[in-house]
Amino acid sequence: MDWQKHGRHIFAAMPEKPLLHTCLSPALLHLYDLSNTAVVIIDVFRATSTIAAALHNGAAKVIPVDSVEGCIEIGAEMGAITAGERDGKVVPGLQHGNSPLEYPRSFIEGKTLVLTTTNGTRLLHMALKKGATAVVTGSFGNLSVVCNYLLASGKNVLLGCSAWKDRINSEDTLFAGAVIEQIGEHFTIHCDASLAAASLYGAVKADIWAFTQKTTHYHRLSAYGLQKDMEWCLTKDIAPVLPLYKDGALVAG
Amino acid sequence: MDWQKHGRHIFAAMPEKPLLHTCLSPALLHLYDLSNTAVVIIDVFRATSTIAAALHNGAAKVIPVDSVEGCIEIGAEMGAITAGERDGKVVPGLQHGNSPLEYPRSFIEGKTLVLTTTNGTRLLHMALKKGATAVVTGSFGNLSVVCNYLLASGKNVLLGCSAWKDRINSEDTLFAGAVIEQIGEHFTIHCDASLAAASLYGAVKADIWAFTQKTTHYHRLSAYGLQKDMEWCLTKDIAPVLPLYKDGALVAG
């Protein structure tokens, strides 16, 4: 028997699974190859949850921008809704906040939302600059839709946590773990960050709300009275839509 | 009642606990303030385990160096034992490897070991450069000794994981979790990386060896036949010594 030939035949018949990595902070993004890779931008509290809410409720698109000035400028140019918070308050010069609860269908349908956030938008732009093949945003609200997209795409996957000023945060890590629990078996995972995220999610998923109350971001947001926001942001599949980055905006894919 | 005065009195009587943070990768070290801070350098597989083994078995000191050339040069100057591996083999020009099992008392007592490692040594030098008040090395072999030192020092604590080429690894994260489980209640912890490390450790500690077999480093080291090394490196308090950095070397503190 020609073992090499036979081996090659088997190999051809059983293609390797795509790779999946988890990047726990934007400060670690440089370690990852983004070619042929779909990047999921994760900013559970609250940018990517709010993006899912707005698109699920019929927003035409969401334009993520880094700066307040950019948000005001683009908003005026497009006659769009501008939104952004700093320290739990709507930024002066903008119209709305970062809460997913502010964007019901009755308000947002058919409109364009220009959203300025710090951590999530920054990571999204970093991933684009580094040549990501595709960029989507993920949050518990659209967990299953994102998972189905990643499975169907056939690409390698990078789960990109937006973190908090580059410091690892629990809620983004947990979402990465939730994705891995749902579809990890279909990927090759040689990545301890993924292993840690999945183990952490497995350990706390029975009461994710109780765990969240120990996190830094909970303390920051609850001081602004945003408990209801956070509960919404941790609810699975409440906004089943795929926010896909295309021509400068996130649109329902 | 003068509330302010009374409040101040209570505050003075109940000083705040020192802070504890966990840094999961050298690439995140810049995020942390190291003033009045004891930094624990963690490189479980295998640098800080081997340092504990050598010092516990009576080595006079261990000099950690970044480069093979530096290792050879310092070793020759001091008439010391040189050690270092790359890809699981002793580096040409050096005498010994990175295994803790290579340094029994009969061999190492009273001698100086010049050790070159990549991840652990690099983080140690980064922490010194950034002005850490005190630097010790930690591993499961000297877990309790390190914990007792941190409690007694009264300083803030940074648990510094050496990671693998800046990528987060499980074994260093788990050691941070073990420290937090043992002494975390005596510190103020507003740090999701610490929370994640402690939760992960809690979730897998019942069979840390089974979990380790899923990690990237296990696969790397087991390919070199180093399972026994890894089992040793995961054994708690097998080398109870405090490796304290002083005048360019780690000595038993």
Detailed description of the structure:
The structure is a homodimer of 253-residue chains. The longest helix of chain A has 14 residues, at 170-183. In chain A, strand 9 and strand 10 form a beta hairpin. With 253 residues, chain A is α/β, with parallel strands linked by helices. The first copy, chain A, has one domain (16-252): ComB-like (putative 2-phosphosulfolactate phosphatase, Alpha-Beta Complex). Residues 1-11 of chain A have low confidence and may be disordered. The first copy, chain A, is 41% helix and 19% strand.
CATH architecture field of chain A: Alpha-Beta Complex
- CATH fold-level label of chain A: putative 2-phosphosulfolactate phosphatase
Q: Mind describing the biggest β-sheet of chain A? A: 4 strands, parallel
As a percent range, the share of strand residues of chain A is 15-25%
Q: How many individual β-strands of chain A?
A: 10
Helix amount of chain A: 40-55%
Count of alpha and pi helical runs of chain A: 11
Which chains share the greatest interface? Answer: A-B, 30 and 30 residues
Structural class of chain A: alpha/beta
The string of secondary-structure elements of chain A, in order, is HEEHEHEEHEHEHEHHHHHEE
- Which strands sit side by side, in order, in the main sheet of chain A? 1-8-2-7
CATH superfamily membership of chain A, which one? ComB-like
Describe the global form of chain A: globular
Oligomeric state as shown: homodimer
| Cα end-to-end separation of chain A | 49 Å
- List low-pLDDT spans of chain A: 1-11
Count of discrete domains of chain A: 1
